[in-house]
Design brief:
InterPro entries: DUF5675. The protein is mainly beta and 139 residues long. The chain contains one helix and ten strands. The longest helix has 12 residues. It is globular.
């Protein structure tokens, strides 16, 4: 299973893009600001920095914070607990990837709950059969 996040709008306070599931458009995304992190992680602003570009394994696990199962990205350098979940603006992110059905492609996304629930259901049906990954890139 391959998820792909293509970042396309870079604002001082947020990053917007689109998520694809096996190459088909799935949802709009909202993240914190992309910063050029140094090899030692300097340049990161806690809870206001998007994770680096790259490919990450994804697993489903229970989130104590959200009290439900959500996708978790593994081995994200300089970050812990990076999940895919709902939220409307980068203020809801803390480094995580937010997904929603609609976006203004300027500052926010919305109609998130159904996208998150559907993604979790889809991944539950796949997780025992194959590994799941997300690749983060830009246009």
């Amino acid at each position: 299973m391959e998820l792909k996040l293509i970042r396309s709008v870079f604002k001082p306070d947020c990053t917007l893009g689109k998520m694809f599931l096996n190459d088909a458009f799935y949802a709009f995304t909202c993240e914190d600001t992309v910063r050029n992190l140094m090899p030692d992680g300097s340049g990161k602003i806690k809870n206001r920095t998007a994770i680096d570009y790259g490919r990450y394994e994804v697993v489903l696990s229970f989130s104590n914070h959200f009290q439900k199962y959500l996708p978790l990205l593994l081995n994200v350098k300089f970050f812990e607990g990076i999940r895919i979940h709902g939220g409307n603006t980068a203020a809801d992110s803390e480094g995580c990837i937010l997904v929603g059905a609609e976006s203004d492609m300027q500052t926010k996304i919305w109609n998130c709950a159904s996208k998150v629930a559907n993604l979790v259901a889809t991944l539950k049906g796949i997780e025992k059969k194959e590994k799941m990954f997300i690749t983060i890139t830009h246009e």
